[in-house]
Amino acid sequence: MKNFIAIILSITTITSTTAFAAEIPRETAPLNATEQQIQITENLISDILDEVQSGNLGYTLAAGYANTRIRKAVMANQTDGNGYGILSPIAQNAILVMRDKQLRPDAYAKAEEELKVLLADVITEVKNGMDIEIATKVVYEKIYQSVNPSFNYDEQFSLDACYRDIPAVGVEMLTVARKLLLEAQK
């Protein structure tokens, strides 16, 4: 009887944790994150992401839960050698953008509408095989130049961080731009 109850509880747990498992939007991951690292993080925090998407958790609480869970998994050697320094930023970015999309859906819709026009040539080039890293740099430069036409990406990023003069753009612009590039790459 105990084994039967244990099996039922296991099946219930597996079913309930995977039924609504939210995925980490790939456009939110740090540029240096690998697919394996994103998947590990996703496996650790998908239920937290579900709560963020449903509006039950705000950024601070969700980020705290995610950081605790990732730290414990790293310390227990359950992350295939990947450390807190990469897994936590993957989680933090996903939580931040998911929460921001929930709070400002119109901003993301407007950004997508504008960026499809502004970045049409680069999106086409990515569809035709342009390297995604080069495309990301080109796209970021175009976005920054939409605010300051004289912005020079290479010049600014060659400077020490404290001397850079980078135009302020909303997180939705860079996130949607990466989403559009990733969709074009498929």
Short overview:
This protein has 186 residues and is mostly helical.
Your description of this structure?
It is a single chain. The protein has helices at 2-18, 35-53, 59-75, 84-103, 105-118, 120-127, 132-147, 153-157, 171-185. The longest helix has 20 residues, at 84-103. By secondary structure, the chain is mainly α. It is globular. Helix 4 (84-103) packs across helix 5 (105-118), helix 6 runs antiparallel to helix 7 (132-147) and helix 6 (120-127) packs parallel to helix 9 (171-185). The relative contact order is 0.11. It is 70% helix and 0% strand.
Secondary structure: elements and pairs:
Elements: H1 2-18, H2 35-53, H3 59-75, H4 84-103, H5 105-118, H6 120-127, H7 132-147, H8 153-157, H9 171-185
Which features would summarize this protein structure in a list?
9 helices; globular; 70% helix; 186 residues; mainly alpha
Unreliable stretches, pLDDT < 50, 5 or more residues?
A: 4-18
The tally of beta strands, per DSSP, is 0
Gyration radius from CA atoms, angstroms = 19 Å
**Termini separation (Å)?**
50 Å
Could you say which overall geometry the principal axes of the C-alpha atoms support? globular
Percent of residues in β-strands:
under 5%
Note the total helix count: 9
Order of helices and strands: HHHHHHHHH
> Mean of residue pLDDT?
90
Largest sheet: none
Tell me the structural class. Answer: mainly alpha
Give the proportion of residues in helices. over 70%
